[in-house]
Amino acid sequence: MTTAMKQELKKHMEEQFMFEFDSDITEDTDLFKAGILDSFGYLSLMKHIEEEYGVPLGEEILGNVMVSLSGIVGFVDTARARAAGSR
Q: CB-side exposure of 3: number of CA atoms within 13 Å?
């Protein structure tokens, strides 16, 4: 699931925020520091993740854990695994 999710999120982000992941902006780049994301874009992205992947987002979205594509994918994977384990 991670690979498909990463590809979907990458495509979504490139289309929404009009940039491309490349050698300068990698999956580990801090998207805030790179000027790709601002607070409104971040909230839009978190809403997409909540709707697309069923991950309820609370205070976690305020931390620095999700500033890169890699961090976002890791967070969603962990949240989904935690939710599956509690069923």
A: 0
Q: What is each CA distance from 62 to 18, 21, 57, in whole angstroms? A: 23, 24, 10
Q: What is the pTM of this model?
A: 0.84
**Per-residue model confidence as pLDDT tens digits over 50-61:** 899 888 776 566
- Other C-beta atoms closer than 10 Å to the C-beta of 1 total 10
Helix axes 69-85, 2-17, angle to 10 degrees: 130
Q: Which 3 state secondary structure label does DSSP give 82?
A: helix
Establish how many alpha carbons lie within 13 A of residue 48's alpha carbon, considering only the half-sphere containing its beta carbon: 17
Distance (Å, rounded) from C-alpha 37 to C-alpha 44? 10
Rounded to whole angstroms, the Cα distance separating 22 from 78 reads: 26
Give 67-81 pLDDT, tens digit per residue: 899 988 988 888 888
User: How crowded is residue 20: how many other Cβ atoms within 10 Å of its Cβ?
Assistant: 9
